[in-house]
Amino acid sequence: MIKITLPDKSVKEFDSDIDGIGLAKSISNSLAKSAVCIDVNGELKDLSYVIKEDSKCKIYTKQDQYALDTLRHSTAHVLAQAVLNLFPGTEYAVGPPIEDGFYYDFLFKENIKESDLSSIENEMRRINKANQLFIREEISISVAKNKFLKQQFKQELISTADPSEGVEGDNISIYKNDNFEDLCRGPHVSSTSQINHFKLTKLAGAYWRGIETNPQLQRIYGTAWFSKEELDNYLARQKEAEKRDHRKLGNELDLFVNTDELGPGQFLWKPKGSILRQNIEDYSKKAHADNGYEYAYTPHIGRSVLWETSGHLDYYKEGMYPPLKNEDNKDDEYYLKPMNCPFHILIYKSDIRSYKELPLRFFELGSVYRYEKTGVLHGLLRARGFTQDDAHIFCTNDQIEEEILNLLTFSIKLLNAFGFDSIEADLSTRPEKSIGNDDDWLKATNSLASALDNQNISYVTAHGEGAFYGPKIDLHVKDAIGRRWQLSTIQVDFSQPDNFDLQYVDSNNKRIRPVMIHRALLGSIERFTGILIENYAGHFPGWLAPVQVKILTIGEVSNYVKEILKSLKNVRLEIDDRSIRLGEKIHDSTKEKVPVSIIIGEKDVSLRTMALNIHDQDNQKDIKLEDGIKQIKNVIKVPKFKL
RNA sequence: GCCGAAGUAGCUCAGUGGUAGAGCAGCUCACUCGUAAUGAGCAGGCCGAGGGUUCAAUUCCCUCCUUCGGCUCCA
């Protein structure tokens, strides 16, 4: 007698052993049909898994994420099978499910091309039609090693595998279907016939085990779903995301441009983009000025000794532009700044500081230059030249926690103002390559953690992800289509004050080392603008839009337009009085994503009315002038910044 | 930096071993127009750069640059 407890606490009893599918059938035929895998006492198993003792079970159906993962994992196997059929002698590495799909990594005898994907996909369809069963086997490690004799990656996996990877004692599990077998902990769908709705999406390079010095494999990405509808939805979603691409919209909306002559990773801001950027910068500057920060301005280059002292040349030389040299004086070398902090430190050092002055907060929209690898550049989101909303806070040890607390509030309010309401935090700890002593690191990390706790912000710890000089809190936002972006970063630093021998005089007239806090809230203005573009799909809120209002005229209404202009002083406004049809004017203002279009014709003049098209709202006709103006002012209102 | 893809008019793209085409945008003219592109005409290109093969290269080959999708990286 076996008792099986289901999630609703009900108990099913069976006279003998029962497998997953049998259990599903005993509950209902429809459940058996949509069942994909089963959780037995917290472990995911195939439906063919035989339950031999009293257990807690949950059956996963096509609606569950685990079921999707299982399908995708199985599809990855079929991909590898197809590849091995078509390209004998290929070595195969790993092929897990990932968000929205799966991949498999291969070492081909000769690299394949993207055009090979269609024949691989065809072979996968053949395997799908062949209705092959996935069969689990447990074999000993030594048998496994013999089985995968010519597979160096499998050999390595066998040697290093642990229980989470299908090892139990001396045994390791494999899955077979037809001529194909692979190391795998499972579970899988029962047959290849269930793998119907998939598509190979891209071919890319990927290092074995993600380590740059390891051989580079070719990774094939794909997506798989239980229904055609879901697959089509996914593909449509991808298209939708493409439409939001800030590089595409930046071009279409005339915001910024990059040219070959300028060099990669640098951008020119066109007038419309500059207005957008200026709005963002002005808002940030004012928020800072109103909340205890003082402006600083610093140059773009500094002597190499500065970067030696700061440690940047030791820790980050690869990421810096090569030095500017002086022919007449070889020792006079300059570097473009990759960070603003050494300059702010020099400002701090330019005076003897008293404890009464602290905390000192220097704020700057500082443009920095980092020599990013060509392959990582990505429009505004990853540029070589960019501007940080950067500040450095110099304070006493006792002030750290309160500063961090205030910073968290400040940062969250600032992100809120730009329309980001969903915010999450990461706490990054000491990386391998770093400076400073363990005590200081621990102290700094703890003060960050307790600030997060105090603010009731949930966070995950990112081990070893801190900066080389200190731990950090990163704030992430979710955008309109659910993507997560890292924006704010707050970093505690005991090392730079040491490097630069910073001091303040305390109340006992003793010289004490201050602590530094580095922080950028919007991060890079370029990147932030790019994220805003994608978040709003180019439909900026009224206060940010480069053109806030467009007046579309019909016939001769110029005097009435002048009157309207008087009520809309300081509004970024354009008038379209071309002698073309109204439809075309509307088409253009829509394409330019102007938030508000006012339409006025001759009949509006005597009635003192207008028609109003406001983005995302129904068109309005015969609106009273005053009412229209009121609505417009509401749409373009700048959000208040209040702590 | 590495693997794959791509670079043709301002933009989006077609095309060919015999030095190029469309739509949109631009300019000119006509139309004077009430909710998502009026019509006609004109102008616009060293086919990313350099080298090679060829009688001939935008097309084929090589190198480089840039962009795109990933990997690694992101102080």
Terminal CA distance? 65 Å
What are the segments in which pLDDT stays under 50 over at least 5 consecutive residues? none
The main pleated sheet reads as: 8 strands, mixed
Round the Cα radius of gyration to an integer and report it: 31 Å
CATH superfamily of the largest domain: Bira Bifunctional Protein, Domain 2
Widest β-sheet, arrangement of strands: 19-22-23-30-27-26-24-25
Rounded average pLDDT: 94
How many β-strand stretches? 35
CATH class of the largest domain: Alpha Beta
The number of distinct helices, counting runs of at least 4 residues, comes to 20
Shape: globular
CATH architectural name of the largest domain: 2-Layer Sandwich
Helix content: 25-40%
**β-sheet strand percentage:** 25-35%
Detailed description of the structure:
This protein has 643 residues and is α+β, with helices and mostly antiparallel strands. The chain folds into four domains: 2-61, Ubiquitin-like (UB roll), CATH 3.10.20.30; 66-240, 2-Layer Sandwich (Threonyl-tRNA Synthetase, Chain A, domain 2); 285-298 and 339-525, BirA Bifunctional Protein, domain 2 (2-Layer Sandwich); 549-635, 3-Layer(aba) Sandwich (Rossmann fold). It has 20 helices and 35 strands. The strands form nine sheets. It has an eight-stranded mixed sheet. Strands 2-1-7-4-5 form a five-stranded mixed sheet, sandwiched between helices. Strand 26 (472-478) and strand 27 form a beta hairpin. Helix 8 (246-252) crosses helix 16. The relative contact order is 0.07. It binds one RNA strand of 75 nucleotides through strand 15, strand 16, helix 8, helix 11 and helix 18.
